[in-house]
Amino acid sequence: MANFLLDKSQKAILETIKEYLSYTGYKETLKSLEVFHIQKEQIPEQSSSLSSLFQCLERGDSKSFFSVWLSLPQDLNQQQDLKNLEFFIRVFFAIYPCHQINGKQVVKESNNPKYKKSIEEFKLYLDAEGSTFSKSEEVLSYFALPYMPNPSEHPAFRSIFSMKWFNGLKDRIRLVVGKEQVTETPLIVKMYEKYIEPEKPQSSTNEKQLLSHIHSLENQLGQMSNENSALQQRFIKYEHRYEEYTSEIISVAKELFKMLEQTKMGKPVSETMFMQAFTILSKYDKTLVLSQSSVAIEQKPVSLNFTTIIKDLTSLQDDLQICALLQALRWRLTRTTKSVHKENLELFIRNNILCTIKPHDLLLDNLLSSTRRVKEYTIRLLNVITSEKVGRVYLLQKENMVALLVNVLYTEKNDNLLRQNALGVLQKLSLKRTAQLEMIKLEMLDWLMKVLKHEDENIADYTLEYATALLMNLSLRTFGKDKLAKNAHEVISLLSKYIAHDNNQVRTYINGTLYSILTRKSLKLAASKLGIEKKLKAIRNKSEENIKRQINFILEQLKQEENECPTDETEEEIEEPAENESEDDDNIPDDEDMDDLIMTPNILTGEELLRERYEKGKLISATSSRRDLEESKDSAIILSSRRQESAKKVPSSKVVPVRENTEYSKGFSSRDKIPRTPLQLQ
Questions:
Q1: Which of 190, 307, 356, 450 could join 398 in a cystine, given CB atoms 3.0 to 4.6 angstroms apart?
Q2: 638 in helix, strand or coil?
Q3: Is 36 or 524 the better-scoring residue by pLDDT?
Q4: Predicted pLDDT at 243
């Protein structure tokens, strides 16, 4: 944009160089320079290049595309983000014969000769360039693409066959190609400017100001372009949600109409049909409430009177009002942006909202020994708090925190929501050394072994993932290894049952446990008797790359002699995920805010409750409060949707091994985000 102001200087410098080359006798160099200068003037502008690139993409013409692509400035091509972009472009050309862009029903990948040819070309590219992407997690999962028979049907690759993904790829190309390179001014240009400076007229100052203003505008344009791209992506996401919403609402309307017809004809209506319709409606009711609540909080969140909150949590007689208060506090953490979530959590901790510090530390004891309903709402709040490192540190200030949670866990005999939440809290706390040792003392390893052995077919994915993750964390301690070594045959037999599980998260945690405990001689002997090495080698040939690496670690461990392990006094903490890890967006995940609506006429909920009863400096009428409490006792209705047992999602707190072995940490760390709380029926 600003180049027109520099043309005169550039021409003068070029002529000076030509004069010098002629003077010193570099005739061939001079001739090459003149030829190159003519060719450069004929290269099309970037906007034209961008148009050509898009046309090649839409035609699936990879050869012409990369001919234009390689004409881009070399230093731009060397950037790692551009290398990643080029990788995704090659992914697109590999799947082009079966992509939606062709506008017709294409033949399945396994029967499409054009697809087979393009995917073979992609394999050759991976063989040649794959090593350069070894540290780029963004692209590693796509290395499996050539080996999937029909990737368009696989959940991990289905999205890349859509127009939405293609448009996103074009946006990334537009952002990169559209950027004007910013390079340091060459020395010869600086010398030329210094030489002619005395001859410049007074207006040169204005010219500099104009240049500065142009650069400023260009920077603003770049920022606005990035913001616009982000907004477009967010709009597409909301548009997709709206389409789902309308589709499901129409479906529910049809079902309700059928129910009305059956009622009119005197036929009974199935309770299951009614509950399915209600579940869908209540989900969107929550979505709308969430939207309104978020707006209310953004407008003006009230400052809270924490003294009154703690007093009511301690002294309120109506358990429904306690649940409403616990829920409102949880919504302060979940129905908000990530940054505000952190601020609110730090505010809760500063005001010791759950009384974890002695001598006044009995609040959680009372809540977790109260009614089942109060226990459930308390555990839900704890599950959100422990999703942050500062929350875990805060709760573990209470000496019997782990014992209280373990008691709740052991009391529940079925895999219900209360037990799942308690298990989730314990797993997150198990990132702390003191909590690990306390859990091992309280026989948590025995409980986990029993659940994994006897309930494997009757537990939800959430329970299975968190149970295996907790087992892995506890096995990292010397005390934990000693406990497991006492029943070596039973432990190895149980773990071998899960080493080929279809859930990769579960396999990762089981592999991590095996690697950790196979430092013990008794456990190695048990593994040898049960043929673990043979099983692992057979599984390795059919596994993904990250699972293969884990199995290789375990096989190496089996060959080594018994290791001299550090004691629990010298072992380190588990390395926790960084607090500032990047998120897909700035919102708390939906699965952390569960569908537990309290629908009672005289019970306030959410931000309305906090504003009316707990705003700092606001006086509350005691008479009104007592009247509401009495009226609510006979009319309480809690609607809590239960989630489907088959829901498949992976846990969110990353389970990471101790830091002493970097390669091991990379091999057995959890890649995916874990639901911070169990999922409800959606």
A1: 356
A2: strand
A3: 524
A4: 78
Q: Are 668 and 515 in contact (CB under 8 A)?
A: yes
Cβ-count burial 571-592 (b if 16+ within 10 Å, e if not) = beebebeeeeeeeeeebbbbbb
Q: What is the pTM of this model?
A: 0.53
Residue predicted with more confidence, 672 or 455? 455
Residue 616 has pLDDT above 60, yes or no: yes
C-alpha separations of 544 from 120, 145, 500, 503 in Å: 19, 11, 12, 12
Amino acid at 137: E
Rounded Cα–Cα distance for residues 421 and 596 (Å): 14
- In tens, the pLDDT along 639-669 reads 333 333 333 333 333 443 333 444 555 566 6
Q: Give me the mean pLDDT over the 65-72 stretch.
A: 82
**Is residue 318 within 8 Å of residue 628, measured between CB atoms?**
no
**Residue that wins the pLDDT comparison between 15 and 109:** 15
Q: How confident is the model over 528-581, as pLDDT tens digits?
A: 999 988 999 888 888 888 888 999 999 998 888 766 555 555 555 555 554 444
How far apart CA 557 and CA 514 sit, in angstroms, is 9
Contact call for residues 574 and 431 (beta carbons, < 8 A):
yes
- Contact predicate 526/491, CB 8 Å: yes
For residues 333-343, give the mean pLDDT: 87
pLDDT digits (tens, 9 = 90+) for 457-489: 778 888 999 999 999 999 999 999 999 999 999
Residue 532 CB contacts under 8 Å (≥ 6 apart), including other chains: 492, 496, 499, 514, 558
Instruction: Please confirm whether the linkage preceding 359 is cis (ω < 30° from 0).
Output: yes
The Cα 9–Cα 189 span in angstroms is: 8
Q: Which long-range contacts (CB under 8 A, 24 or more apart) does 403-410 make?
A: 403/438, 403/442, 404/364, 404/365, 404/368, 405/368, 405/379, 405/429, 406/439, 406/442, 406/444, 407/368, 408/368, 408/375, 408/379, 409/447, 410/447
- Strands 638-640 and 596-598, bridge-based pairing: antiparallel
In 3D, which of 123, 162, 124, 128 has the Cα closest to residue 142? Answer: 123
Question: Quick one: how far is CA 117 from the chain centroid?
Answer: 35
- Residue 25: HSE in the Cβ half-sphere, 13 Å Cα cutoff: 0
Mean pLDDT estimate for the chain = 77
Phi, psi of 56 (to 5 degrees): -65, -40
Could you give the CA distance from residue 296 to residue 277 in angstroms, rounded to a whole number?
Answer: 29
Rama region for 142: left / alpha / beta (φ>0; ψ in -120 to 50; rest): alpha
Whose tokens are 């005169």? That residue is 8
Distance of alpha carbon 103 from alpha carbon 164, whole angstroms: 14
CB-CB contact of 394 with 385 (8 Å): yes
DSSP reduced 3-state for 650: coil
8 Å CB contact between 69 and 86: yes
Residue 402 and residue 429 in contact, taking contact as beta carbons nearer than 8 Å: yes
Domain ranges of the chain: 45-185
Contact status, residue 412 vs residue 669, Cβ threshold 8 Å = no
Tokens 């906090």, residue? 610
DSSP letter string, 339-388: HHHHHHHHHHHHTTTT--STTS--HHHHHTTS-HHHHHHHHHHHHHHTTS
